[in-house]
Amino acid sequence: MLLKDRTALITGGASKRGLGLATAKLFAEHGCRVAIMDLDLKVTQDAVVGLPGAGHLAIQGNVVIKADCERAVAEALAAFGRLDVLVNNAGVTSPLRLLDVDPSTYERVMDVSMRGTLYMTQAAVPQMKKQGGGSIVNMSSVSAKNGGGVFGGSHYCAAKAAVLGFTKATAREMGPFNIRANAILPSMIATDITGGAVTPEMREKIIATVPMGRIGDAHEVAGCALFLASDLASYVTGSEIEINGGSHIN
Ligand SMILES: NC(=O)c1ccc[n+]([C@@H]2O[C@H](COP(=O)([O-])OP(=O)(O)OC[C@H]3O[C@@H](n4cnc5c(N)ncnc54)[C@H](O)[C@@H]3O)[C@@H](O)[C@H]2O)c1
Q: How distant, in Å, are the alpha carbons of 77, 86, 150 from that of 131?
């Protein structure tokens, strides 16, 4: 029980095969009360019902809207009384090539990852300061390091690199308050983020580049989030943890 009596807020956690829901399940298995925030209330409520244990919370909200982020933290605090962990997981991808990136796609991809991470962090930090600490886990991507090319275009790579820089600055600024901030950088993981656009041929090509010979699973990302959220990582901040089966070894 690595998160016994702790509470967490996870954004973008309602997607059935997503990294956020896998993280919520693992946190709940470890004794954590979890609030999931996502765009659609019914889908989010259904996701929460499936979590192990009791006392979890579904919150409708859009991370791009500052008032939603502030309300989400307020709802979590009203239900739980404290907030120990924030997982900034909500994100959208887009495969558009450089010359095809239009203003609205740029804004959507950048905003959900970066603006959402900023607004949620701003909303959560005052409470974490009051409590004497907390852990913030931000979902970046290997695309931030290797330029993507599989499914995420230049705008997605930029968004995830922005999240990485933001994480390090947050760690530096919040260290004195015992608030840790770390980033997870997964490579291709089997979720629905591409909306089924990865063909079997593309999948085979990707697998051929992975020393471990397979695509990652959401629970493997959740395990990393659990480590970063827990006291096992009590001196880990500003770090970036890569999860990629060896496909990107620095
Ligand atoms: N799956 C991968 O291969 C992979 C690899 C690297 C990084 N990532 C990152 O991991 C995170 C989770 O990805 P996933 O594969 O689980 O995706 P997913 O599409 O399964 O889930 C993303 C969730 O975010 C929610 N969301 C989107 N916009 C939102 C907004 N404005 N406000 C609140 N919620 C919003 C969606 O409704 C969805 O439930 C993303 O940030 C993604 O960029 C994924």
A: 12, 14, 41
pLDDT range class, residue 77, cuts 50, 70, 90 = very high
Other C-beta atoms within 10 Å of 42: how many? Answer: 10
Kindly give the distance from the C-alpha atom of residue 163 to the centroid of ligand 1, in angstroms, as a whole number.
14
**Ligand 1, atom 17, residue with closest C-alpha:** 193
Q: Is 235 a catalytic residue?
A: no
**pLDDT given for residue 194 in this prediction:** 84
Tokens of residue 19, six digits: 């990294």
Task: Give, in order, the Cα–Cα distances in Å from 45 to each of 31, 35, 36, 151.
Answer: 19, 10, 9, 30
d(CA 227, CA 123): 23
Q: Residue 195: its pLDDT value, please?
A: 83
- How many domains, the chain? 1
Q: Residue 183: which of 198, 195, 168 has the closest Cα?
A: 168
- pLDDT tens digits along 222-250: 999 999 999 999 999 999 999 999 999 98
21 lines ligand 1 (CB under 6 A): no
Lowest mean pLDDT among 16-20, 104-108, 142-146, 149-153: 149-153
Domain annotation covers residue 248? no
CATH of the domain at 201: 3.40.50.720
